[in-house]
Amino acid sequence: MKTNPTLLALLFASLATANLLAQPALVTDPGFQVKLDGEVRILARSGNKVVLVGSFSSVNGHLSPGVARLNADGTVDTNFVAAPATPLPLMWYHSAKGDCVSHGDFAALPDGKLLALGVEGKLVRLKSDGKLDTSFQAPELVGWRGCWGGNVRPILGPQSDGKIIVQRLSRETVGENEVVHIRLARLNENGAIDASFAPIFRQPAIGRPDDGYSEAASLFQALTVQTDDKIVVAGVFTEVNGVARYGLARLNADGSHGCDKVIGENS
Fold it and tell me: Sheet harboring 67-70: ordered strands across?
């Protein structure tokens, strides 16, 4: 018996169409409607609420210059008002390359507090109602500056114990010049540097070997903290804690070796 390829094609097409029709329709949530007078550049989840950061000045008619928190249904959480001392999270400027943007970052902590990192590297902690938490005092960190893809990126990696993985700036005077170093660091819950956290990253030499910092501001590009508090970091490096790792590595929660296995192997 010969098989008619045209009939087979029609049969398979009919089955595929029937399968698609059987799938539930994908629609937007009609109950979630938000009106803004500007753009949103940063989203941070805080429990079942969402923090917006951007160039807007009002959300759903509520005055919210640059920062707002939404309830689960999209309404503005009026119990949250960002402190006036919150560092500027976004800054637009113009250069020879055209419109550029600098931005910091926002991150939610397990206790409902929020971290706000400004474009100039100032980090503050906000209480759950948006008020400034004055018990938190952090050193100078790394903000972000570039024309749609610049090479300096903010890193905020909260751990479950309240400590925070960051990029830290340190400065030293070499002759008549000031040299800025960028290191991966961890802050204690009060914002102080955790001296026990000291992973060593090396990257291709830029004039001389690198001993844990980068004179180019592009060593660390992205970071995420796993549910077990281990740290996955991506960037421009070839060695981590003495182990060859090319651009992607995982550290233990305390920054120790943790790199004896490649990403993807069982821990």
Answer: 40-46, 49-54, 67-70
Residues 6+ apart with CB under 8 A from 54: 36, 38, 39, 40, 41, 42, 66, 90
Question: Does pTM top 0.85 for this prediction?
Answer: no
| pLDDT tens by residue, the chain, 267 residues | 555 556 555 555 565 555 555 556 556 777 788 999 888 878 888 888 998 888 788 899 998 888 889 999 999 999 998 877 666 554 444 444 444 445 567 888 888 888 888 766 778 888 989 888 999 998 877 655 444 344 456 678 899 998 999 888 766 677 777 666 678 899 999 999 999 998 988 876 554 444 443 444 457 888 899 999 999 999 888 888 888 888 899 999 999 876 544 444 443
Where are the domains positioned within the chain? Answer: 33-133, 155-259
Two structure tokens written together for 232: 């996955």
